[in-house]
Fold:
Amino acid sequence: MNIIVAYDSIYGNTAKVAAAIATALEPDNSVRLVSVQQARQTDLGTADLLIVGSPTRGFRPTPQISDLVAGLTPRSGGTAVAVFDTRIEPGAVRSGALRWVVEVGGYAGSRMDEMLRGRGYVRKSDIAGFLVAGMRGPLKPGEIDRAADWARSLV
Ligand SMILES: Cc1cc2nc3c(=O)[nH]c(=O)nc-3n(C[C@H](O)[C@H](O)[C@H](O)COP(=O)(O)O)c2cc1C
Structure:
């Protein structure tokens, strides 16, 4: 299967998750791992499965990922898509009020999923959210393994 993993990352955590996803899929598939900047120069239409990842920033994906997604068109009949995000572990937010806001505000994954399905992409799996332990990371222990398991569940 032809798979493209496109991601954005400010502090490097989402990049690590994206790399783990690509590595897990590589043995049996043709996989390309592209940053959002590289994705602009890549024909994403060649993918049988497009995987898109972003950090959650202010309850949303980054503007760069939103712009990328807004410009995508699936194949006729719909290209399969799977999305993931990184997000703060709720327990790491000390203020109860702020924790409530973060949880109610939502995450990048559901926004990307809505946008992609609105454009005719077909959701391949549940949205995955991978946890960071502080505002800038690092990833919580076990999240890289969980990302690899999620990736393998897609194919
Ligand atoms: C300005 C800013 C806003 C953020 N907003 C949210 C948020 O709304 N919800 C959340 O769960 N995490 C939020 N975070 C934590 C990010 O999700 C975290 O920085 C990100 O997962 C790290 O990924 P990256 O290293 O790939 O940039 C925010 C972090 C920053 C710096």
